[in-house]
Specification:
With 81 residues, this protein is an all-alpha fold. Helix content is 54%, strand content 0%.
Length: 81
């Protein structure tokens, strides 16, 4: 009852006789980039941490430079007297 019925003799497929006058341009789908929310969050957190470290290094360098200038000026005045 549910078995398919096959023809006794195979028939060849019909031949296509129509031709395309103006073929449609080939449309390639745009590449889909799937980025997870976790990856975006990790990049943002990493950027914030690196920016904070860079700021800390800059502040430390400036404070060391100021301290060096102050010490140099104090020692120079001491040697002049």
């Amino acid at each position: 009852m549910f078995l398919p019925k096959y023809p006794d003799t195979p028939t060849p497929p019909p031949a296509h006789t129509h031709t395309v006058a103006d073929p449609a341009p080939i449309r390639r789908p745009a590449p889909q980039i799937s980025v997870s929310t976790g990856a975006v969050a990790a990049v943002l957190v990493g950027g914030v941490v690196l920016t904070a470290l860079l700021a800390a290094v800059a502040v430390t360098a400036i404070s060391v430079a100021v301290a060096a200038v102050v010490l140099r000026s104090m020692l120079r005045e001491k040697h002049r007297r």
